[in-house]
Amino acid sequence: MFKVRLFVILLDLLSRHPLLVRIFLKPVANAPFISRKLNVMFRAFMGSTAFEIHEVDVANGRISIGGVDEMLFGSEFIQILHEAFAEILDEKEKERVLYDIGFKACYYEGQEALNKGRWAPKTLVPLIYNSEIVDKVRSDPLMARFFQHVEGMVTRLILNEGGWGHLDFDFETRPMKVRLYNSQEARYLGPAEKPVCQFFTGFIAGHATSLLGERVEAREVGCAAMGEPFCTFEIDR
């Protein structure tokens, strides 16, 4: 717990002094020889953006972050997925397939990040990615603060700076709730009479499953495509 306390103190300090981060720490985090030796988490907290952390292999046509290969595509791809599956599947089958694709894609990315060992220090990984984290967050203010920092950073790198929108987790509610602002699915598929973010619902379930170390399911209970200010999801363990 000493490491967690020290980590929280440091991150609280950095969050209160963004100018310090931008002027002094970000240049260090992006320095060629230093950046190769730092974990993704450290570079992010030192001010590096996802695009600065990504590694581009032009000769082989590859892009990765923390050793995890990625591909960039237009946001319209989500709309195309919905339209393509709607042509060959009924509505319920389409929703399930989109959910499964989102789940497996995000779960795979989370597991790859852990297996590559370049996202976070080995001493911190067991504290974050385990099935007891939710209970600890609900009972221990220090762990709640620690988790808030870590999850906020991961969300910023993968979602905010990945063009998916802005995501907020609330692990203290039962069931757990997640709010997504500016959903790409809702943007292309609205207006609608029911929630439309099947792909992202699976995405959230896959992320939470990887995070918690146990299978969870998610469902969308409110959607921006229906005129609400943001999309709301519930997660069941």
Supply the number of helical segments. Answer: 12
Main sheet properties: 4 strands, antiparallel
**Span of the ends, CA to CA:** 26 Å
In the sheet with the most strands, the strands line up as 4-5-7-6
Radius of gyration: 18 Å
Percent of residues in helical segments?
40-55%
Secondary structure tally: strands: 7
Show the helix and strand layout.
Layout: H1 2-16, H2 18-29, H3 32-35, H4 40-45, H5 50-53, E1 55-57, E2 62-65, E3 68-70, H6 76-86, H7 91-116, H8 125-128, H9 133-139, H10 141-158, E4 166-170, E5 176-181, H11 184-189, H12 198-212, E6 217-222, E7 231-236
Antiparallel strand pairs: 1-2, 2-3, 4-5, 5-7, 6-7
Quickly list its features:
three-stranded antiparallel β-sheet, 237 residues, four-stranded antiparallel β-sheet, alpha+beta
Question: Summed up, what is this model?
Answer:
The protein is of the alpha+beta class.
What does this structure look like?
With 237 residues, the protein is of the alpha+beta class. It has one domain. The chain contains 12 helices and 7 strands. The chain has helices at residues 2-16, 18-29, 32-35, 40-45, 50-53, 76-86, 91-116, 125-128, 133-139, 141-158, 184-189, 198-212; strands at 55-57, 62-65, 68-70, 166-170, 176-181, 217-222, 231-236. The strands form 2 sheets. Strands 4-5-7-6 form a 4-stranded antiparallel β-sheet. Strands 1-2-3 form a 3-stranded antiparallel β-sheet. A hairpin with a 2-residue loop joins strand 2 (62-65) and strand 3 (68-70). The longest helix has 26 residues, at 91-116. The protein is globular, with a radius of gyration of 18 Å. The two termini are 26 Å apart.
